[in-house]
Amino acid sequence: MKATAQDVLTAKIYFMAAFPALRIPLEEDASFAKKFEKVDDVEFRAADDENPLACYMVFLTQENADKSVQGKRFKVYQGEYPGNVEMADGTTIQPQLVKMYFKSIQSLLGVFKGDKVTDMLGIMSPLLKNITKGATLKFLFLMLTLTKTMPNYNPEDDWNKYLKVKLSLSLITRALSSANKLGWPTMADWTIKQPDRTYQFVVGATVDADGNEKFPGITANLRVKNGKSKATSGLAKYPFVLFKFPNPDGCLKVLDPKNDFVANVENGYVEIVGAGDSYAVQFNTIMTQCQNMLIPAKFGGVPIGFEG
């Protein structure tokens, strides 16, 4: 089945932006860190008449990560799994592979942004084919953490507020950069006109009633320059536009698509530092358009199968 150009773009953004964001719960949630102590690979494929897609994820023990070429416990690669993981000394290891193969791009997107339960049935076939492999259910629950970025997820406890904000900012900055590299016209036309500029998000730390830090501050950046782009973390020295949030609660207000951006600024949920407000509003508009590709149509997202 041939996918629309819009669906191909969206699926690629998931591979390039959403999956790498899974490192956050892997690194910061002790329960996930323990579950992925053993080595496992996961490969995603989506069949299509003209645009077959694939990516794979490598999970390594700390011991193997230290010996590997990648040097990391978790990394996402674009393309089909080559059959092994290369070590720095030239040897290879062959972890057990969980093959998440979908019959179509639309079937894959149904899992991530389907409006109805029936849209998500595409997960059943790859899930049943891998059910006997130890990493399958572990990975499924890890992947479900991406649902915390959806508009209908409204956490009340501090940990999940922190996790939603960090996941969301990592995902959207990566998604914008990926969309630019994939030639999404809205982003490509915008970045080509930009000199070297960094658009930065800084979220204050989560503190308890006594003012003690419970969770650290959060930073995420998008750097653009003459048509090129890169998503990074850490503090930029001289951001062109800084979106400064007092805490995750303020950021959650801005991330909610129901809330008007200008009203959020007026209400003090976010402070704009740096360039004129027009650049911040322009950037927020593009960010919202990109976010809409990744969320279900019932929340205002781009419908699966839509040809834009």
Descriptive terms for the model:
308 residues; alpha+beta; Nonspecific Lipid-transfer Protein, Chain A; 2 domains; five-stranded mixed β-sheet; four-stranded mixed β-sheet
What does this structure look like?
The protein has 308 residues and is an alpha+beta fold. It has 2 domains: 5-149; 158-294, 2-Layer Sandwich (Nonspecific Lipid-transfer Protein, Chain A). It is built from 12 helices and 13 strands. It has helices at residues 5-18, 23-28, 30-35, 62-67, 105-113, 124-129, 135-143, 158-181, 185-191, 248-255, 261-266, 277-294; strands spanning 40-46, 53-59, 74-78, 85-86, 92-93, 96-102, 197-203, 206-207, 213-215, 218-225, 228-232, 241-245, 271-274. It has a 5-stranded mixed β-sheet. It has a 4-stranded mixed β-sheet with strand order 3-2-1-6. The protein has a two-stranded antiparallel ribbon with strand order 4-5. Helix 1 crosses helix 5 (105-113), helix 1 crosses helix 8 (158-181) and helix 8 (158-181) packs across helix 10 (248-255). The longest helix has 24 residues, at 158-181. The model has no long low-confidence stretch (mean pLDDT 92).
Residues in helix, %: 25-40%
- Low-confidence parts: none
The number of distinct structural domains comes to 2
Order of helices and strands, N to C? HHHEEHEEEEHHHHHEEEEEEHHEH
Strand order within the widest beta sheet = 11-10-7-12-13
Average pLDDT figure:
92
Largest sheet: 5 strands, mixed
Query: How big a fraction of the residues is strand?
Result: 15-25%
Helix segment count? 12
Terminal CA distance reads 18 Å
Overall geometry comes to globular
Number of strands: 13
